[in-house]
Input
Amino acid sequence: EVQLVESGGGLVQPGGSLRLSCAASGFTFSTYWMNWVRQAPGKGLEWVANIKQDGSDKNYINSVNGRFSISRDNAKNSLYLQMDSLRAEDTAVYYCAGGAGYLIDSWGQGTLVTVSS
Amino acid sequence: DIVMTQSPDSLAVSLGERATINCKSSQSLLSRSNNRNYLAWYQQKPGQPPKFLISWASTRESGVPDRFSGSGSGTDFTLTISSLQAEDVALYYCLQYYGAPLTFGGGTKVEIK
Output
């Protein structure tokens, strides 16, 4: 059974940084594209970034480009999201998600990031 | 970026009746190389992550009840719940995975009338 477990969320001040982690198990992590998807309180789903199986290709939405960095460690079956220069509008539940190619077929439970002074 | 427009925003359907959700993309999601539509559907209940229902516009994920079906091609897609059950009350989202950035529809809330 695929399991994705996020950690690292919390309260951070505007302009601050946070690093999210996702621990994967139950599947061959190195064969999946991996993604971060977020959901602001009471809002819809918003894809944030993805990374190719070997880490050689990464994509971001415009609003986080240059502030967020996605990475992975296949030896540790782990996905990361380094978030810098955080803004109030980055407040959301962040989901780790993965699948074959760009298709997303597996989701974690999410971790809440709150950006507030 | 590909814009995904879902309609309606919400709908109320009687138990046992049909629910239909539409999703329109700003450009074709049909690949000429493999003749597949890069469109997926998800169900999300309060306090839970999304649940994967359908890929390639019409391929139901294993374990998803057959009352859920997807159809459409190119830019126009539909998710149909043929006989609404109480447990189907949820938000439903479409996702295009044709290209980055991936984009979701705004969501459709399905309720019992």
Chain A has a mean pLDDT of 97. The longest strand of chain A covers residues 18-25. Residues 56 and 74 of chain A are 12 Å apart (CA to CA). Chain A touches chain B at residues 35, 44-47, 50, 59-62, 95, 101-110 (CB under 8 Å).
